[in-house]
Predict the 3D structure of the following.
Amino acid sequence: MKKIIIPFIIAFFLLPFLQAQNVKLAVGMKAPDWVFTDADRKEFTMESWAGKVIQVNYVDPDESELNEPFNEAVNKAVDVDKRIDRDSFKGFGIVDCKSTWKPNALIRTIAGKKAKKFNTTILFDYDAKLQNLWGLPRDNYSVVILDKNRICRAIYKGKIPPSENEKMIQLIIALTRE
């Protein structure tokens, strides 16, 4: 009887802790923090951009072009139209290296080109930590918008329809003014 009860007791106390480690991020929730490095092995967290609205692009390298039109629209709103204040906003990518067959050296090369094109930071998640921490899908391209307090305000898993681009840009503009 003890052999049956002990695993249940352990599971009762351990299960809530394990579930808390892998919470599926949802709109309205505070996003759990993380630590990732860039190509130069410099560490970044969400607090690296304290006080800014952030757009996290969590990308399987095999899907890297999926939301290119959205990112180009955001880039235009920041650099050309000046509708999004660069001092209040940071968009960046985190590469989901575990979701691809591509070698890390090739991923770094591709990411370097994207970083230059969008004048941004690209970080590397070699073990799918963010995928597990935030409950993001594997083999996909997710875009997460967080306000200045790191509350999730929008999540898109997969391709953002072109009809949503302006809506998302307006959300970012509104959040930068809060």
In short: The radius of gyration is 18 Å. Helices lie at 2-21, 68-80, 104-118, 129-134, 165-176. The first strand starts at residue 36 and ends at 37. Confidence is low (pLDDT under 50) at residues 6-20.
